Amino acid sequence: MGSPPNLDVYVCPKCAGTLTYVPAADAGQHVRGTLSCEQAHTYPVTDIPRFVQDEGYTSNFGKQWAEFRKTQVDSATGNTESRDRFFNGTGWPASMSGETILEAGCGSGRFTEIMLGTGARVISFDYSVAADVAHDSFASKGATISQASIYEMPYRKGSFDRVFCYGVIQHTPDVRKSFFNLVEMVKPGGEIAVDVYDAWKWIFHSRYRVRWFTKRMNQEKLLAWCRKVVPAYMKVMPPMHPYNQIFVPIKDYRGARPGFTEEQLVEYSILDTFDMLAPEYDQPQSAGTMRRWCKEAGLTDVHIQVGGNGLEIRARKPATAKAADESTKRALETAATAAA
Length: 340
Description:
Pfam families: Methyltransf_11. One of its GO terms (molecular function) is S-adenosylmethionine-dependent methyltransferase activity. By secondary structure, the protein is of the alpha/beta class. The protein is built from 12 helices and 11 strands.
């Protein structure tokens, strides 16, 4: 009878209690049942643990990664784009054997694959059903994946050597809270790497002139529009990436991604056009804001650079228990002041 792998990593996201798995009576060899704690909080398991009732504000991401599950995965494209972005942004070593990494927002698993290649133990989650896409592709290779929210993560605080989160926090309702929640998951002495859209880079982007409408569109219709309009645009307009986006809310990666075939570039452009027009939330941040948040969280060795989707931030949590406690206290006090 099947059971979810690596149950030791999970705790109840509501009370932090230990979870017990009970398989469904008709589960057979399938992974299907419930996780429950002593406080009677119960979560279904259907192939993967489900710590949320639905996809909430992330349904567009579930759809896009089901549709484009291999578009950004290096082993499928034959390129090293995801690998290069991961290591250039994080500054982490190519070998992390013996370490445990939390990946917040795995999407289709483009970075899950890279982290698995380092020998690390990779624990991933996604709020959307993209978690199923990543599970189908990478569970057999060692990834432990669940469907969960960044606001109620089912893990013990301070239990990860590294926390990685790319392409996520700008798409959450409260970017600051998302960031601080991730910091709480890092062990003393551990490292965190996140990225976020750059407020200055995107301030004149044409997407923000149309998103008030496109984010409310039926997702099937929006995706159909992208599939029709993006290739048509690429046939009649010269490649001007990224400057065309000042005037036209369409991604066009011709000439911007060496090594990709023409077919791959068209697919990638459709994907990222949908990706920028569909999300419910799109909240860029400035480098100054991110540096301030790192300071408030008590992080050290803070490095912020322009790259990838905008700003890439990496930092370390203080190594000593005393410093870590003071860091957490400052973060909680700041959060309480902001909420007052």
